[in-house]
């Protein structure tokens, strides 16, 4: 499979580009922020994503979806990133769908996701840094389980209809195995979600599970063997977050290069200064390399390759590095105006930081790459 | 091409390689003498080197994707990929290093006359003639088009006078492909592209010793060298088109240096050998581990970029200036790789000639990489090209 988009994928990109730019440009985020919107995203917009078929990209055709892959999900996410569109697409249509795939929960939740009625959130992080550890306890109780512990950085966690929760049913926090994945109703008794507004104006919740009782059929996959669906969720989430980061970095770069072509100082456009040209060209190179890594990771995931984990970590780390550079150079090259709230470039810097942290930062993934490579 | 035919091709290729690739040619290349270059003088080749080069050339597999008529293998891109994979699987060495293959060949295929192709390409494929490149001059480095070496018309010949510099292996080459000035009134539009024998009267060379202790480069002098006009590639005064096309291939080749070699990772293996692994299986020096891991992120991503670049080139959809980006990124990456190789090797890697430093190949290669961002157009020149031709930023 060549490492560029085929004709159908290019068509999807053009459609997604137009759709997102029209319905959820940066001004949409700005207006949600200015009116202190308490959901953090627009349900109407989520409905239109569904009408476009986007929410079913990773859902099989036999289940009413489009039966496409991670490359296609990444195409939509890149446009979401480019426009800084607040959307539950990554958590719901990508990560949660991958976790639920092949389980009885698919029949229960996919119709709502397809119609744009259901929003899912991921309760996986327990500390300020993403790690591959799970301490939240799930103890057997009657016909089901009782969940106790805390999660944080749960994007959309306070408004989601469904929470995917990683819990420990055996072993200790650092063990890879002994994890069970649960589909939990956000309104379950004993569950408290406290939303916090983040740097980028999005909302993420700290969630407390105080003996939350769930039935046995809330288990996704097998008891103690939640590592399998959790890994599927993480691979998809990490790849998707990389694609969204790529869009954020690309959007910031386009703004900056555009600005270099129009801003005049010393009587000439500043884009004619070699010092700035070289930095812009370097930034372009980093973004191109990151772009290749994202597409490679998505293709390997779609192929079910055993090299996928490796490529996913490369993509997540590389997009974090390249996009961080892009937003930093963006603010710097815009000069004073780049520091103003009125101008959009600062919004890119804020979203980049949040996405860089989500599903593991560059250090986490470099460490993972080293471990996978045996050193 | 059906999958069955490709599977069959793979099976046959695997069997042929198993039979024809000598065991000595499956060992890693450790120093310059392990690399095989073709040429009239093959007295320095070991029997295994000679046998491997000739066997591959007999199949046209030194240049697998060139047409059979010119000594190539006539393979499709899919077959070429299979051949590379099967060679990598047995860690087979490159049978023939050649500027003829990586640079002149593609330019001749595009711009050469049928006679020039028939005369030169087959000899390149068989490793019979070793080529060097006459581009840079003492006053025409990054500003290549300001070159002054002149070619005056004299009947059916040109008379060439001037000096080239940084001519790689000029002292070992049989022929040169050379940029000369045929019109002094136009800078880029007054350059022609000539091919001639280094044994021609009036050609002399002088090696330039480098910081690595090696001397791959030469100064090359032309004193009234007579070159038939039939040896000019493409039209008179249009040599710059050929030169630019060839530079794209050169940049592509140099950018490949940023890629990890197949089979094993010398950087990681070297670091494990020096500092060891702790009880968790991690490098015992956590900061060195972090540096290597972060480097590997970029290196792996650049490998993916190279794959994408090649796919786009094949499909004719790569931006024409993209080789500049590949050259820039690949060479900067390669310099970082060797800084880390030296840091991983510690004092062992400092030894200039000992076995511990593979006969000095680690420090010499480290010093050699410092030229990567200078030769073939400096990093700054590549950034200029990206800024102007890809990002469309204005000229001063």
If you had to describe this structure to a student in words, what would you say it looks like?
The complex is a heterodimer of chains A (375) and B (396). In chain A, β6 (191-197) and β7 (203-215) form a beta hairpin. A four-stranded mixed beta sheet of chain A has the order 1-4-5-8, with helices on one face. The model of chain A has no long low-confidence stretch (mean pLDDT 97). Chain A is of the alpha+beta class and 375 residues long. Chain A has helices at residues 7-23, 26-34, 43-51, 70-82, 89-100, 105-115, 227-262, 274-303, 308-334, 345-357, 362-372, and strands at residues 120-123, 137-141, 144-155, 162-168, 179-185, 191-197, 203-215, 219-220, 264-265, 268-269. In chain A, α7 (227-262) packs parallel to α9 (308-334). By secondary structure, chain B is α+β, with helices and mostly antiparallel strands. Chain B has three domains: 3-97, Butyryl-Coa Dehydrogenase, subunit A, domain 1, CATH 1.10.540; 131-238, Butyryl-CoA Dehydrogenase, subunit A, domain 2 (Beta Barrel), CATH 2.40.110.10; 259-389, Up-down Bundle (Butyryl-CoA Dehydrogenase, subunit A, domain 3), CATH 1.20.140.10. Chain B has eleven helices and eight strands. Chain B has helices at residues 3-20, 47-59, 77-89, 99-111, 114-126, 239-255, 266-275, 286-314, 322-345, 361-369, 379-390; strands at residues 131-134, 150-154, 157-168, 175-181, 191-197, 203-208, 217-228, 232-233. In chain B, the strands form two sheets. In chain B, strands 1-4-5-8 form a four-stranded mixed beta sheet. A four-stranded antiparallel beta sheet of chain B has the order 2-3-7-6, with no helix packed on it. The radius of gyration of chain B is 22 Å and the shape is globular. The model of chain B has no long low-confidence stretch (mean pLDDT 92). At the A-B interface, α7, β10, α8, α9 and α11 of A face α7, α8, α9 and α11 of B.
């Amino acid at each position: 499979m060549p490492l560029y988009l085929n004709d159908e994928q290019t068509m999807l990109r053009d459609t997604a580009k137009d759709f997102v730019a029209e319905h959820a440009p940066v001004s949409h985020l700005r207006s949600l922020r200015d009116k202190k919107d308490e959901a953090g995203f627009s349900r109407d917009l989520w409905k239109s994503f569904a009408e476009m078929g986007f929410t079913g990209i990773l859902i099989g055709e036999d289940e009413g979806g489009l039966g496409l892959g991670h490359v296609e999900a990444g195409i939509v996410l890149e446009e979401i990133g480019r426009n800084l569109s607040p959307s539950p697409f990554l958590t719901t249509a990508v990560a949660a769908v991958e976790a639920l795939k092949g389980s009885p929960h698919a029949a229960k939740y996919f119709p709502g996701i397809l119609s744009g009625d259901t929003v899912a959130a991921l309760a996986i992080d327990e500390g300020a840094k993403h790690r591959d550890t799970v301490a939240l306890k799930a103890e057997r109780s009657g016909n089901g389980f009782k969940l106790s512990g805390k999660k944080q950085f749960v994007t959309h966690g306070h408004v989601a209809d469904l929470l995917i929760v990683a819990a420990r049913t055996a072993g200790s926090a650092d063990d890879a195995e002994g994890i069970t994945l649960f589909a939990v109703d956000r309104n379950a008794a004993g569950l408290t979600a406290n939303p916090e507004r983040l740097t980028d104006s999005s909302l993420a919740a700290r969630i407390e599970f105080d003996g939350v009782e769930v039935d046995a059929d809330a288990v996704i996959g097998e008891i103690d063997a939640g590592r399998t669906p959790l890994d599927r969720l993480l691979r998809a989430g990490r790849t998707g977050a990389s694609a969204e980061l790529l869009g954020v970095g690309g959007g910031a770069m386009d703004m900056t290069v555009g600005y270099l072509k129009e801003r005049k100082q010393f009587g000439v456009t500043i884009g004619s200064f070699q010092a700035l040209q070289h930095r812009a060209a370097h930034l372009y190179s980093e973004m191109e390399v990151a772009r290749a890594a994202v597409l490679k990771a998505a293709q390997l995931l779609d192929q079910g390759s055993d090299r996928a984990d490796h490529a996913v970590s490369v993509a997540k780390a590389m997009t974090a590095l390249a996009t961080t550079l892009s937003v930093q150079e963006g603010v710097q090259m815009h000069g004073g105006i780049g520091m103003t709230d009125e101008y959009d470039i600062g919004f890119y810097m804020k979203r980049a930081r949040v996405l860089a942290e989500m599903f593991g930062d560059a250090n986490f993934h470099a460490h993972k790459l080293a471990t996978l490579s045996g050193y | 091409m059906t999958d069955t035919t490709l599977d069959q091709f793979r099976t046959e290729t695997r069997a042929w390689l198993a039979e024809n690739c000598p065991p000595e040619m499956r060992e890693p290349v450790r120093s310059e003498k392990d690399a095989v270059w073709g040429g009239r003088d093959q007295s320095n080749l070991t029997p295994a080197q000679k046998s491997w080069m000739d066997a591959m050339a007999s199949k046209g597999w030194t240049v697998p994707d060139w047409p059979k008529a010119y000594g190539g293998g006539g393979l499709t891109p899919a077959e070429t990929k299979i051949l590379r994979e099967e060679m990598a699987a047995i860690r087979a060495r490159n049978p023939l290093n050649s500027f003829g293959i990586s640079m002149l060949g593609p330019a001749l295929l595009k711009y050469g006359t049928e006679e020039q192709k028939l005369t030169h390409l087959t000899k390149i494929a068989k490793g019979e003639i070793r080529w060097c490149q006459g581009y840079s001059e003492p006053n025409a480095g990054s500003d290549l088009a300001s070159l002054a070496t002149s070619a005056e018309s004299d009947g059916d010949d040109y008379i060439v006078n001037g000096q080239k510099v940084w001519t790689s292996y000029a002292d070992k080459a049989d022929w040169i492909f050379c940029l000369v000035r045929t019109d002094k009134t136009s800078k880029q539009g007054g350059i022609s592209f000539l091919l001639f024998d280094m044994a021609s009267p009036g050609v002399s060379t002088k090696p330039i010793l480098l910081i690595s202790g090696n001397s791959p480069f030469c100064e090359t002098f032309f004193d009234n060298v007579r070159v038939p006009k039939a040896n000019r590639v493409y039209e008179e005064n249009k040599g710059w088109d050929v030169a630019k096309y060839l530079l794209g291939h050169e940049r592509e080749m140099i950018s490949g240096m940023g890629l990890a070699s197949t089979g094993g990772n010398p950087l990681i293996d070297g670091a494990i050998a020096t500092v060891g692994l702790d009880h968790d299986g991690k490098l015992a020096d956590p900061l060195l581990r972090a540096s290597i891991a972060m480097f590997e992120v970029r290196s792996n991503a650049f490998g993916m970029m190279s794959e994408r670049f090649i796919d786009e080139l094949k499909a004719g959809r790569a931006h024409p200036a993209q080789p500049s980006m590949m050259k820039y990124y690949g060479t900067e990456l390669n310099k970082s790789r060797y800084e880390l190789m030296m840091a991983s090797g510690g004092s062992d890697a400092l030894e200039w000639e000992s076995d511990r430093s593979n006969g000095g190949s680690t420090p010499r290669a480290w010093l050699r990489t410092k030229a990567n961002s200078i030769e073939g157009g400096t990093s700054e020149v590549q950034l200029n090209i990206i800024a102007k031709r890809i990002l469309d930023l204005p000229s001063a």
